[in-house]
Specification:
Blueprint lengths: L20 E6 L10 H10 L4 E6 L15 E5 L3 H9 L3 E5 L10 H6 L4 E6 L5 H9 L2 E5 L2 H16 L7 H11 L1 H15 L1
Parallel strand pairs: 1-2, 1-4, 2-3, 4-5, 5-6
Helix pairs in contact: 1-5, 6-7
């Protein structure tokens, strides 16, 4: 599975100075198996000026779905390192499960190294990403249904207002040690050393 760089975020106990809780999605939506339609409905119903969503990736065909939703930006495709920088600007990273329960988006491992809270919209049936996020301690999950997403966004917003969407430094370090590119390379080097 893919991982990410080892970021060293400085833990803080206060809400960011931003006027909005910034949610970032980097990757691709798909009509058939990673569809953001229920998210768009939830955001439209909330119409909160305190929530901003930034989407990076080849997602132009989904722009009309978010028409009329405040504070939504579609940036188009970005360089991978620009996506990593964008993830660092987030208060919350957004992950949508695939419909298939035998595979999870590899992006989740990158998110786990970012030191940010992850909102995961679950897939049907057994969702391996939900289990991984529960083990990591940084994930908030919701069924991919507008009413549940809306309620989860309200909860996240309440925590954000209180400064409670901060991943503690020691937890960031633990996740980076498990899922960073360096950790993946070290694991691979150990396997190769045993084989050779």
């Amino acid at each position: 599975p893919q991982g990410g760089p080892e970021f060293r975020n400085k833990p803080c106990n206060a809400k960011s100075l931003s006027e909005t809780m910034h949610i970032v999605f980097t990757g691709s939506f798909y009509e058939e198996f990673r569809n953001p339609g229920q998210l768009a409905v939830a955001l439209r119903e909330l119409a909160s000026p305190e929530i901003a969503l930034t989407v990076a990736g080849d997602n132009a065909r989904f722009v009309p779905m978010f028409e009329g939703v405040p504070n939504v930006r579609f940036l188009g495709k970005l360089d991978h390192f620009d996506c990593l920088t964008l993830q660092q600007s987030a208060d919350v990273l957004l992950n949508l499960a695939n419909v298939q329960d035998y595979q999870m988006p590899g992006k989740i491992y990158e998110y786990l190294t970012a030191g940010k809270v992850v909102l995961h919209l679950k897939g049907p049936g057994e969702d391996p990403t939900e289990t991984l996020l529960q083990q990591s301690g940084v994930g908030w999950t919701a069924e991919n249904a507008a009413a549940e997403i809306r309620e989860r966004l309200k909860s996240l917003l309440a925590h954000w207002r209180q400064g409670g969407l901060v991943v503690p430094g020691e937890q960031q370090e633990r996740l980076a040690a498990m899922h960073s590119w360096r950790a993946r390379a070290d694991a691979l080097a150990q396997v190769l050393a045993q084989v050779v």
